Amino acid sequence: MLAEQQLRDYLGTAGFVGRVGDGVAKVEGLHSGAVGERIKFRRGVYGMVYLVEESSLSAVILGSDSLVQRGDPVWRTGTLMSVPVGIELLGRTVNALGEPVDGEGIIKASERGAIEVKAPGVIERESVSETMVTGMTVVDGVLPIGRGQRELIIGDRGIGKTAVGIDMIISQRMLYRRNDKISGISFEPVVCVYVGIGQKCSSIARIVELLKEQGAMSYTIVVSAAAADPVSLRYLAPYAGATMGEWFRDRGMHVLIIYDDLSKHAVAYREMSLLLGRSPAREAYPGDVFYLHSRLLERAAKLSKKLGGGSMTAMPIVETQAGDVSAYIPTNVISITDGQIYLDEKLFQRGVRPAVDTGLSVSRVGAAAQGKTMKGVASKLKLELAQYREVEGFKQFGADLDDASRRMLERGERLVEVLVQSRCSPLVEEKQLFGVFSGIGGYLEEIPSTEIKLYLRGLLDFVDNEEIFGPWIECLRNSMDADVKTVIDFVLDFYTREFMVRKDWYVRTYILNKGYAKDEMKWEHSIRDEVIRGFEQEVVAASAGL
């Protein structure tokens, strides 16, 4: 009797490969397998049960299918697919199974997390209200993102979608390296996860090198599922990345995860489903392709204080063809997310970086996740950009413009220049405010458009003097009263006058970037010191007159 029971148990946990090819296998004899269960083939190869049928199982092979042959035995493991999680993964590059691919040794993680988990429910969440700093003026000012939000990055190929995501990761170093000398506040790091799906291995390697150069790899996990990897790993990669991020979120930390990109993820899912014999639907995708991404992006959340108050912010990337946002996968992801950052190819060709179209882009969380000061100027910035786009449309048709429209057009062009930003150069909110105020406050009207970059570069260098501007940092970040506006106007008025007088020096310093001899260095510092002394004198005079 005992022998018969053991035989039944064995027949339920062991089977054999009936058919294999193209990274998938048909397994017979496993009558009690579960979807998502990890199974073991001969020669150390593992797979995952994907479909449970009446007389067989369909599984995807998590590795090379050349090591799996027809007739090979297959064993159940009784465990669902999982990946290693924990602080040990920070700074490492891993594949979709959590195995290191960076050549830096094994990862000694003490915990594992299931790849497929249920997203937090409504009761477990709270509304998004904390700012997720991106370091990009156009995003923080016009399209604010909150911790726990899902914001789509969408646009054609090769116009900077990945660059926006990577710059967001780099900008987080401003928080965890910064120790505010005035308030004494030290900021906790935001853990970042970058998931590369279907990218070239060389592209992922360049991203890792860039993150190391910028000092951002120490708080980042890179999950690599390159185009050369099996389709099963490209399918699992985003879920593995989400599991790694959730470990930190559930411990009260904040996480930023970049999915690059979900278009290739959908293609991998279609390929895998067709190989397994599932019925195709629209554009040959399986009928549940919407659920593929909805269950992934729903895992991004801001948890309640009772659960630690952690958050995971998701930034999926989707590629469009010729700007067509109405295609199948783009519309699916747009309907799932809380807004989109739309990158326009025409803006990119004009040299606008990042090439964000503020007209088609939207953040549905909006001002709820924006600082008090930035919120006070953002509405005016959005209005003036909208007016500029309207007038620009008439200009493109060759219409004659009156003086008011022409001034509006010139002002809008200057505002666009204010929002232009170089790669890997994130700005804290206070510096962003000075740039935005210079545009909407009219300080750029006397400056030619070709010199605005020079003006802004000098302005940021000027306000970088902590000894003078340090005491005002907290005021700029947390208040929008009349006194703060007076301070900003005072600074911009002084700097603009100095810029017009010393424009040649700014050109020499920032544009020519000439190597100075020792006597020339003294000349440079003397002018810089003279500007600072002049500003201090005006501050004293203004204070005495109050």
Characterise this structure.
The protein is an alpha/beta fold. The protein has three domains: 11-80, Elongation Factor Tu (Ef-tu), domain 3 (Beta Barrel); 123-262 and 293-369, P-loop containing nucleotide triphosphate hydrolases (Rossmann fold); 375-545, Lysin. It has 19 helices and 17 strands. It has helices at residues 2-13, 137-142, 161-171, 173-176, 201-213, 231-249, 262-275, 289-297, 328-336, 345-349, 372-396, 403-419, 429-440, 452-462, 466-469, 473-478, 482-501, 503-512, 518-545, and strands at 14-21, 24-28, 37-41, 46-52, 56-61, 73-80, 82-85, 93-94, 111-114, 152-155, 190-197, 220-225, 254-260, 301-302, 311-319, 339-343, 362-363. Strands 8, 10, 11, 12, 13, 14, 15, 16 and 17 form a nine-stranded mixed beta sheet that branches. The longest helix is centred in the C-terminal third of the chain and has 28 residues, at 518-545. The radius of gyration is 28 Å and the shape is elongated. Residues 1-11, 178-187 and 511-524 have low confidence and may be disordered.
